[in-house]
Write a structure and sequence with these properties.
single chain; alpha+beta; tt1808, chain A; Outer Surface Protein A, domain 3; 2 domains; 6-stranded mixed β-sheet; 5-stranded antiparallel β-sheet; 11 strands; 18% strand; Restriction endonuclease; endonuclease
């Protein structure tokens, strides 16, 4: 099972079982530990995952973080857990206190469903107030799975994560702002666009109120147009893919119309049949004509070629096959020369009879 499937399977399970999980401790065991396992960590190996990791705070000794993921005896990720029904917003101050007392570069605040990932982008050794990445098992997006995968034991690289953390953080915040503005444009947002299109005078409050609704409507129409275009492109692609087999058939039909089976080719076919009649019933010997050669087959199977007649040039050839189906051409001065290859033709067919080719 790949990482994406493992995460989605975990999400399905915890959504199904959440009502059975009554306490914070149960959330750790039923939700958080399986999540860490999905990230490739052995939760029962204290060299990898340390429960109740001690993070002393100055004169306060014995302060504990729920879990620490450890590498080379040093914590690399601190994890603070809450009950699955808890709102995480009031709780990050506790993790904030622990962060600067250890060498961990990342911390996770989670309720089993939502995981908020923090680092120290704003100030070294001081945990940022806002997460740079949030992953919610109730609302999984494929692009987020790729970001989550960076925290997998196999792929974990501190420098790589830090290099993308800033972009993730600000893109996430910008998306949140755009979502807010999309649903209810603020006056500043509305004013930004209204100034570019309204030329009839001063932007009074009445005009701004009017443009607030117009801006919201324009946003909705724009998004709907984008969706419509995507759907049209997808449908056109599907129609093209469906039309492709018809086009192939048309080309094949056109090529078939150009094939002319000559009497000389039929005479050669009859000679081969007469040679092989002492080996197999002649009804098992068939032919298929093509533009560049005339193929004689055993049991009308392209994977059982007996020989090929190449009669389209000034010189005529018979193509014979070895056991590896490699063709070798031999010149024919007349059709009677086909009899010179009788033994080879018989051996070829005998080989198919003794060792049937799977279709």
């Amino acid at each position: 099972m790949d990482f994406k499937d493992a995460i989605k399977q975990l999400a399905d399970r915890i959504v199904k079982h959440k009502e059975l999980v009554q306490t914070e401790e149960a959330t750790k065991h039923s939700f958080v530990m399986p999540f860490l396992q999905a990230l490739g960590y052995d939760v029962f190996n204290p060299l990898e995952v340390v429960p109740e990791f001690i993070a002393d705070l100055g004169i306060k000794k014995g302060e504990k973080v729920d879990y620490a993921i450890v590498k080379d005896s040093q914590p690399i990720i601190l994890i603070e857990c809450k009950h699955w029904s808890s709102n995480l917003d009031p709780h990050n101050s506790q993790l904030f206190r622990y962060f600067h007392t250890t060498k961990a570069k990342f911390s996770i605040l989670t309720n089993g469903f939502e995981c908020r990932f923090y680092t120290d982008l704003d100030e070294p050794n001081k945990m940022d107030e806002k997460p740079f990445f949030t992953f919610d098992l109730r609302d999984i997006k494929d692009n987020q799975i790729e970001e989550l995968k960076k925290f997998h034991k196999t792929y974990f690289d501190t420098d790589n994560i830090v290099s993308t953390a800033s972009e993730l953080k600000y893109v996430g915040q910008l998306k949140a702002i755009l979502n807010t503005e999309f649903n209810g444009p603020t006056q500043d947002f509305t004013r930004h666009f209204a100034r570019q299109v309204y030329t009839a005078g001063i932007l009074t409050q009445k005009v701004l109120d009017q443009f607030t609704q117009l801006t919201k409507k324009a946003f909705q129409i724009y998004v709907n147009d984008l969706i419509t275009e995507r759907l049209k492109s997808a449908l056109q692609k599907e129609e093209t893919e469906q039309a492709a087999p018809d086009a192939i058939e048309a080309v094949a039909a056109e090529a078939e119309n150009k094939i002319v089976t000559t009497q000389e080719e039929l005479d050669a076919f009859n000679i081969v049949k007469s040679i092989l009649r002492k080996v197999v019933p002649v009804g098992k010997i068939n032919y298929r004509d093509a533009q560049s050669y005339f193929a004689i087959l055993f049991e009308d199977n392209n994977r059982k070629p007996v020989c090929r007649m190449h009669f389209n040039s000034s010189k005529k050839y018979i193509g014979l096959f070895n056991s590896d189906k490699v063709e070798t051409r031999h010149e024919l001065t007349s059709l009677d020369d086909i009899f010179n290859h009788a033994d080879h033709l018989c051996d070829t067919v005998k080989n198919y009879v003794l060792k049937p080719v799977e279709v």
